[in-house]
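Aim 2 progress. For CID domain-containing protein, the working sequence is reproduced below.
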Amino acid sequence: MSSWKGEEELKGALSSLATAKGVSANRIKGATVACMKWSKEYKRVVHAVENVMWKADVEHRLAYMYLIDALIRASQTKFGDDKDHFAKRFGLHMHHTLSACRKVPDDHKSNVKKVVVEWKKRGVYTAQEIEEAGGADFLGDGPLDSGDRPPPSKEKISSLLDSLQKLKQQHQQDAPPATDRDQPPRKESPPRHQYDIMSASAPIQRLLPVLVSLRSCTQSIPGRHADAFITF
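Predicted structure tokens for this construct:
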């Protein structure tokens, strides 16, 4: 996004959360006030908060999670749940936000889970929305998945490929052999007529000289008598 009027003020408020003194309620409150000041630019505000949080050191990400929660609360209190834009906007990239929270220190993970559980209880996000964002473990009683899954080994990949090949061969063996019934029906040519065109027109050709001679005769007979003859 291009620079805007409140960018520098907001940047200073957000950077104050990334300090070595740990999470500070006063700094979170100050950052919330700065964000709400520019609530009409909520898209820019959300973009700025998310970018800072995702790139922040892992020990500072809990503070930004608290900021997101405080900002949603303040917006819903001021505008009402129906007119609050922040919850919906933060929900668009919840997957990345929760992924960033998986890296927080172990003593911060329970606090992160409490925030997500509170979102569900207050109806900020439904359980389905949280699960679709990859946050099912944030709602459970077990530990958070760190997300550090090692890539599968070559042996594992080879084993999976062998299993797929065996399934394919078994499917081919179990498939019934093709029969004539599986073949598409042949198209039969329509039956030929008993008489072709030339044979049917032969009698007419033999009558043509007779009809021509009759017409020439009628031309020499007076008009009222000519009606007695066939014309064509």
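The two ends are 92 Å apart (CA to CA). This observation will guide construct design in the next reporting period.
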